[in-house]
User: Fold this.
Amino acid sequence: MNLIEIRCPVGALDGEDRAQLAGDITAGLVGDELPVEVPEETMRRARAMTHVGFLALNGWTTGDGPWQPGATPPLWITMTVPDRWRDETARHAIGWFRRAVRRLDARHGWERSVGDLWIDVAGVPDGSIGLDGRPATADDVLATMTAEFRARADASEADLPEGVVVDPICGMTVKLGKGAITVEDHGVTVGFCAQACRDAYVRQVV
Assistant:
């Protein structure tokens, strides 16, 4: 569940701008530029559960007055995720969105002033997430996103190098060691790509 809304002044972004921003953002969240390897089954669901939309607002005004066409447009980006994911998601997403905006600015030669770009990551509490129109929790969202991977019969660690394990929730490979997110389960060290996967595992299994 990655719900992304990009607000801008009316007339500030054309179709090519919107396509570039949406493409760069999704590439870093669920696409080719994701810095880790994820099973296709999980990525297929993650892509389907990621949405980017644009909202052009009339009368955009700052404390310095109305935005003027031709000037660098202010942008306000909101990403909505389950509340349990918010802090961890924000550490990656805010930087990635900033990078995507810088690529757009570079194409236009826009110089962005202080306060022209706001990015916020909002969390939705368990029970207030409407997954397919039904109340859900962060664990429900994660289970839906990873269901195809977990149903796969050959999801094993047989061919992995020593010190590398598969996150049993989402299928991402995890290198054990300093800083790794792990839990001990009956004497076995289980590794996870993110705190959200670890917490879901603990609630469901341990």
In short: Residues 86-108 form the longest helix (23 residues). The chain has a mean pLDDT of 90. The first strand starts at residue 2 and ends at 9. The helical segments are 15-30, 40-48, 86-108, 138-151, 195-204.
